[in-house]
Amino acid sequence: MQVIWNEANIFSVFGGGYSQAARGYVIGLHRLGVDVKIEKPPVPGSELLSPDEYHTLLALYRKPRARVNKFVVDHTVPDYWARRGSYAVGFTYWETSRLPDPWPDWCRNRKAVWVSSQHNVDVFRSSGVDVPLFHIRPAISPPEPVSGTLLPSTLPPFRFFTLCAWGERKGYDVLLEAFWKTFHAHEPVCLVIKTFGTPGLEREIAQRKRRCVGDKPTPPVYVVGWPISHADRIRLFQECHAFVLPSRGEAVGYPLLEAAAMGLPVITTGWGGQTDFLPSDFAYFIPYRLVPVRPQPYYHGYQPNQLWAEPSVDALGQLMRHVYENYAEAKGRGERLRTHVLTHFTLEQGARDIVRAIAQLTGRSPV
């Protein structure tokens, strides 16, 4: 049996969680000996992947497509699912309390739907999805340390870090407000933001700061807004001391999984798919309240009849202060979290979840 993996941006470092997850799953399946083929070709920017990852994916793309005995995985939002193959499953994610209105009907046209968190299992079921649902755990490779630095040496020595798209769902506004209100200019601390695709970001941050704290001096906010390589991505995690993501909704939260695998203390909202791999004893959870979702400009599926989390600005500031002033304790939590993630969320385990799902759906194992 050939597993055909259809994810439009699998070669792209700009594809977000879908493409990052897809790369891990197909490489994990390949290592298990599964005949897996990628549908989509390399794209500009593919050279920013690690060389090993790129060459493995390229070989899987160039592999001949089986004529029969195919199992197709459409790994994208349901808007783009295509009905193909003897068994076509949809693999997707959603971040709020309820699915967008068209999704349940689209899901009913699948043999099955795969999701990557218990949060999503509950959301899909409560939204009326009645086809088989399979929980495929998120998976990550142990990151290999790299030499060299990316950040300027002039930045203060204690660095909070976030990595996210610049959108309301990721809670960047909550993070900036908490940082500016919590820390003073004389303290040796800064906030490093890795994001992309937002022209004039420094100007927007400066305007937001004036609205938030006026002319009060604050520690620096440093933005990495340009494309970076796989090695530079690891360097950012290595050069920072704690990872913070006050997200309003996550189906998984792969940057949180990366931070955990790097052993960083993690501060995040205590609601969403990230709670699958972030035990409360090892991570720092921000208190929240559930509020109606506002429509978002980049996708039609965010609706007022859905809820997501509104993390507390004051509580986030207190947690950041605690991690900064009690770093030995926080670092210990981070190391325990690293052991937990690299024990239970490996590429092999994610691939085995997929193998079990395929065997249950078809009666045959692809291995």
In short:
The protein has 367 residues and is of the alpha/beta class. The protein is 36% helix and 17% strand.
Structure description:
- With 367 residues, the protein is α/β, with parallel strands linked by helices.
- It has two domains: 2-139 and 346-362, Rossmann fold (3-Layer(aba) Sandwich); 158-344, 3-Layer(aba) Sandwich (Rossmann fold).
- Helices cover 36% and strands 17% of the residues.
- It has eleven helices and 14 strands.
- The chain has helices spanning 16-32, 51-62, 103-108, 118-126, 172-182, 201-213, 230-239, 254-261, 313-325, 327-344, 347-362, and strands at 2-6, 35-38, 70-75, 87-91, 113-115, 133-135, 158-163, 189-194, 221-224, 242-245, 266-269, 284-286, 288-292, 307-311.
- A six-stranded parallel sheet has the order 2-1-3-4-5-6.
- β10, α8 (254-261) and β11 (266-269) form a beta-alpha-beta unit.
- It is globular and about 65 Å long.
- The termini are close together.
- The mean pLDDT is 95.
Q: What is the alpha-carbon Rg in Å?
A: 21 Å
Strand content: 15-25%
- How much helical structure, as a percent, in the residues? 25-40%
CATH homologous superfamily classification of the largest domain: Glycogen Phosphorylase B
Q: Would you identify the CATH architecture of the largest domain?
A: 3-Layer(aba) Sandwich
The tally of helices reads 11
CATH topology description of the largest domain: Rossmann fold
* Largest sheet geometry: 6 strands, parallel
Described by the principal axes of the CA atoms, the overall outline is globular
Top-tier CATH class of the largest domain: Alpha Beta
Q: Into how many domains do the coordinates divide?
A: 2
Alpha-beta content class = alpha/beta
